[in-house]
Records
---
Amino acid sequence: MPIPESAGDSGTARSTDRLLTIDTGNLFRDNVGAEGVAHEELVQFAPELHRVHAELVTKSAGGLDSEYACLHLATTMRDALPQIREAAAGMKEYRDILLIGIGGSNLGTKAIRHALKPEDDAPRASADASGRRLHFIENIDSYHLERLFRRLSPGTTALLCISKSGGTIETVVQYLILRDWLTRSLGAEEARRRQWVITDPGHGWLRERVRAEGLASLPVPPQVGGRYSVLSAVGLLPLAALDVDVDALLQGAADSAARCLSPDPQENPALQLAGLYYLLEQRRNKRISIMMPYVSRLRLFADWYCQLWAESLGKWQGPRPAETAAGSLPVRAMGAVDQHSQLQMYLESRHDKMFTFINLDRWDHDFAIPLDAPAQRGFPYLEDRSLVDVIHAEFLATRQVITDAGHPNVTLGMPVLDAHALGQLIDLYQRTTIYTGLLYGINPLDQPSVEKGKKLTIQYLQRSAS
Ligand code: PA5
């Protein structure tokens, strides 16, 4: 059942041939049998969906001051683009940009960079046409830092430190080491000029450093949390420094938002997806939610989705020890690679999985398959076929076997691989995640257990120091 392309009027210019297609047909019983949702079930669930839609509308009223401020970034960040571009121009003076941040502070940027400006040589950092390279400093890894110090020169390097809270230990310690490296080589003033900070506008250790040292900085709106922040300066600044079309990214998100205005799930793709994912988890025991793009460049988008889904929805419903956990475990798979790895288990293990395929409609590049006589004899069906034909056949075949095995699955079709389509995917999944959290009756924006871990790490450091 494809979801219609237009719902409501957003006031933004959009062209329907650039919108994602969302085919939820294989989530229903008609196509996958008993493991799917019955159409009447979704109809009966409408009051719940209306409830969560109304809650989302209420909690996002008030723009960037509202609880769901993240849903306004697509429109409000347009005004900040000149400032972001100015900061990006400053950064572009340096060949190597070290982005220090973790979790929501870098996963979105990594996903979009990988999709649109991918690294050309896996373990090395990517270099764009001008030779500029963006390096991600996230996990604490002395091997990685040592290697960077050997390869980089302070003279061509700038730092971009991103942390909403301004105090995440992995980010802070690596920032301190890298600042010190620059300062020892270039002197305090020159090192200061090569630092940019993105953090909360009012609070936190990083904000204090910005004030005390006059560092260049951009704010993350106070109500916007890490994994919902990619459309703020958190993602826009490093992506603008890589010449990603950030206008198109925001426009894509705005175009997606415009499809999600209705309380009717047939007219609101995020609401329909949330309802179906929720019903499948709660009533059909689909405890695992697998995202499987058939485009290698979306591998890190699936990572971004995994963080968003897991950290937002993996929560207890009500106070412990109520044994009713919320959420399905997000898992990333890659087509066609995981056909040769995970697929066997997907097909023959428990019926506890649902699938989200992402398929690309139009590839920018394709290759004819040159068949010499032996190849023609071995693979006659490849006559007049191209590489894109092959990956497309693999996608159709895998989806078919998964459907035939009775596993619910949805297909998102990307018209092209560009910033506009990625903006749509980001908005669609942020909204779907929030709606799903509201269906579970949990707060999709917090991460109480992650916070506990952060505090305990500090206690362990205190103990070992004493
Ligand atoms: O989504 C979240 O809130 C987290 O994943 C954070 O992004 C992560 O813990 C890093 O936090 P911060 O941006 O405060 O350094």
---
Amino acid sequence: MITLPKLPFAENAMEPFISAETIQYHYGKHHTGYVNKLNDLIKGTEYEEMSLSAIIRRADGPIFNNAAQIFNHTFYWKCLSSSSTAAEGTLLEKINNDFGSLEALKEEFIKMGASLFGSGWVWLVREPKGKLMIKQTSNAHTPLSSNLIPIFVCDVWEHAYYIDYRNARPDYLKEFWKHINWKSASKIYEETDTDVFIGIEPCNDIHDPFCQLMDELQDEDRVTT
Ligand code: MN
């Protein structure tokens, strides 16, 4: 059984970037809905006793969609900060190396988020020990399926911004940029910068540092549904 993680901030903590009303729908209806739906779908199946990361790497169809959306949302909340934080340390060095500057990454990230057709996600990801990249995924798709390590993500489904920004997705992306939790991004970058090979086989959670981190995120402050 998969549980809904607690929202890591108060409902109104992100105002005016994200209103409490958006959070009530986004977390309270959408994220919660994916958890309830997944638990209905996996009841009595081989997935029932698996971790969320294991389900994402093995399932397809509705089980994959709901499991991946649970992870994507849990991760998105962790990527947000109500106070301003700054990129620094080894992650900032890597950004300067791979994109030229933080400003260049920002411009490209906003452009990729704005140009994604339909519903999806825009990510800063890295290959294991490799280059940082911006990646768009449609619908529930997640970089975990292609063994990329997410550093941060912005949800660009309409439900993420329509109450507060209507159709102005670029404005939402610009505000997102000011609320990136760089502390969390640096922690992920540093903790997953290892020589451990992340293979194409379904992950063995013991040997995959991101899967471990992801299951820790999922297990933090559980809310019983
Ligand atoms: Mn969403």
